Amino acid sequence: MSEPLRIALAGLGTVGGGVVRLIETNAELIARRAGRPIVITAISARNRGKNRGFDMARYAWEDDMVILGEREDVDVVVELVGGADGPALALARTTFEAGKALVTANKAMVANHGIELASRAEAAKTAFKFEAAVAGGIPVIKGLKEGAAANYIHRVYGILNGTCNYILSTMEDTGRDFADVLAEAQAKGFAEADPSFDIDGIDAAHKLAILSSIAFGTAVDFPGVTITGIRRLLAADIAQADALGYYIRLIGMAETEVDAEGKRRLFQRVHPHLVHRDHPLAHVDGATNAVVAEGNFVGRLLFQGAGAGDGPTASAVVADLIDIARGDIGAPFSIPAAELDMAARADTGHRTGKAYLRFTVADRPGTLAEIAAAMRDAGVSIESLIQKGRVEIDGEERVLVALVTHHGPESAIAKALDLLEGSPSLAEAPLVMHILEE
Amino acid sequence: MSEPLRIALAGLGTVGGGVVRLIETNAELIARRAGRPIVITAISARNRGKNRGFDMARYAWEDDMVILGEREDVDVVVELVGGADGPALALARTTFEAGKALVTANKAMVANHGIELASRAEAAKTAFKFEAAVAGGIPVIKGLKEGAAANYIHRVYGILNGTCNYILSTMEDTGRDFADVLAEAQAKGFAEADPSFDIDGIDAAHKLAILSSIAFGTAVDFPGVTITGIRRLLAADIAQADALGYYIRLIGMAETEVDAEGKRRLFQRVHPHLVHRDHPLAHVDGATNAVVAEGNFVGRLLFQGAGAGDGPTASAVVADLIDIARGDIGAPFSIPAAELDMAARADTGHRTGKAYLRFTVADRPGTLAEIAAAMRDAGVSIESLIQKGRVEIDGEERVLVALVTHHGPESAIAKALDLLEGSPSLAEAPLVMHILEE
Question: Which domains does chain B have, with CATH numbers?
Answer without folding.
Answer: 5-133 (3.40.50.720), 140-306 (3.30.360.10), 349-435 (3.30.70.260)
